[in-house]
Amino acid sequence: MQVLGHDKICDSIPSVSTGPWLDELKEKKVFLTDLKGDGAEIEVLIGADYYAKLLTGRRWCLKNGLVDVETQLGWTVSGKLCH
What we know:
Blueprint: H1 20-27, H2 48-54, E1 55-61, E2 67-71, E3 74-78
Antiparallel strand pairs: 1-2, 2-3
């Protein structure tokens, strides 16, 4: 994997807001670690050319429109939140 160094990768990305979807994840034994929304800087950005190699094949489509995907680095949540 080629790693490029940059002073700043991108602006902060908001954390997942709390709501009933957290209970839905908990039922599936998925626990998110970045719910505090402290605005920490992104230190590593993985491009699409490597991201697919990290996928395990497990994913959950949540009732609120979000998709939870398991990677070798842990679970990620993406998509548009539909209340």
